[in-house]
Amino acid sequence: MDPRYIKLARNLVSHSTKIEKGDKVLIHSFDIPQQMSIALIRAVKEAGGLPYSQVQSARVDRECIIGATEEQLSASMTWELERMKVMDAYIAVRGSSNVFENSDLLSEDMNRAMKALKPVLDWRVQKTKWCILRWPTPSMAQQAKMSTESFENFFFNACCMDYSRMVPGMAALEKRMKDAELVRITGPKTDLQFSIKGINAVSCGGTHNIPDGEVFSCPVRDSVNGTVFFNADTIYQGSAFSGITLTFKDGYIVEATSSSNQQRLNEILDSDQGARFIGEFAIAFNPMIREPMLDILFDEKIDGSFHFTPGQAYEEANNGNKSQVHWDMVSIQRPEWGGGEIWFDGELIRKDGLFVPSDLEALNPSSLLAE
After folding, report:
1. How many Cβ atoms are within 10 Å of 145's Cβ, its own excluded?
2. Strand 24-30 and strand 89-94: pairing?
3. Looking at the structure, do residues 291 and 146 belong to the same domain, yes or no?
4. I need a labelling partner for 39 at 20 to 30 A (CA). Which of 4, 14, 32, 214 fits?
5. What is the b/e burial string over 237-262, where b = at least 16 CB atoms within 10 angstroms of the residue's CB?
6. Shared-domain flag, residues 168 and 144
7. Is the pTM of this model over 0.90?
8. Where are the beta strands (DSSP E) in the chain?
9. pLDDT tens-digit series, residues 348-361
10. Domain that holds residue 98
């Protein structure tokens, strides 16, 4: 077995989910090598946990979703939810040979499937120790415009980095976000203001997502005003989007445009009442991830970026917004991407992707990658 599989599996069990003796752990494998699933099962056993395995395929899932009735989906998710309720932890590793596998599904089919899945997702996020990561595939290497071997090396370097180095800077940024009231973000085609007063902030350093490197909060639901442009391309529900611009009035997205798939963009934002409100605001700083690759678990951690998320708010930093949608949209503010600034209560926090206050400089690449 590739020793990198063993190292990654042990990190997921010991650091990300902190499995303890007797923990029941669901290992959810999506189109990944059997060896990685076995490595995870062995790592859970080493920690004294009780592993359970679920193996899934994107092509098989697609066929099940096509034409599925609400009754059919509800019955399927009922037993999914009952199983999740007896688990203490959840580790999902997701590969994909084709990220556009669901691109031709009808909107109504996808919406029914997402609605049926939501109670399972809510329980997993709120009630279990969980972690999700992608798996390096030739498809992902193509998205990143890298060779398969180079991408695998990049993947394992990013996923197995020493996340403890982020802790001091993350703690300082988390405190600043908890104490802040008014946030202003400026940049090309962007001038956005909102309040985060009274909303919690959460540091993410290798726990729920791998790779990691962000601190997230959430706007007061009705406080968002202005316009934001997302310069990172994105895929959501199997469709690709470029150049998304959102305009807000009192928290609500009054206009949504994109240079591709604009009709589909608005269909997703019309999925339910909460999809046109924001459920997350996060500042990212993983120095190993520099360019978008159409995979949100990587793209939302890009060094010098922030993301703004239409849809469901997290329980840990909650503004009360509920939706079956949770779509992280990413804007990169490094100079080569046009630059930009983030301000808290009139104080400049980050300029052109680099943190300015001395207590946050530990999150800049020069500190996180120092030898």
Report:
1. 10
2. parallel
3. no
4. 214
5. bbbbbeebebebeebebeebebeebe
6. no
7. no
8. 24-30, 50-56, 89-94, 129-134, 182-187, 190-195, 202-204, 209-210, 214-217, 225-230, 234-236, 239-241, 244-249, 252-257, 278-284, 305-310, 329-332, 341-344, 347-351, 354-355
9. 999 999 999 999 99
10. 3-158
Per the listing, tokens 């490197």 go with 213
Pair 153, 253 in one domain: no
Tell me which of 158, 181, 200 is where a domain ends: 158
250-258 — which CB contacts under 8 Å span 24+ positions? 250/222, 250/223, 250/224, 250/225, 251/194, 251/219, 251/220, 251/221, 251/222, 251/223, 251/224, 251/277, 251/278, 252/222, 252/276, 252/277, 253/277, 253/310
Residues 83 and 185 in one domain: no
What CATH number is given to the structural domain containing 74?
A: 3.40.1830.10
Convert the pLDDT of each residue in 73-92 to its tens digit: 999 999 999 999 999 999 99
Residue 2 pLDDT > 90: yes
Predicted pLDDT at 143? 83
Contacting residues for 145 by C-beta, under 8 A, at least 6 apart: 293
Number of domains in the chain: 2
Shared domain check, 168 and 147: no
Please tell me whether residues 143 and 210 are part of one structural domain: no
Cβ–Cβ under 8 Å, residues 294 and 143: yes
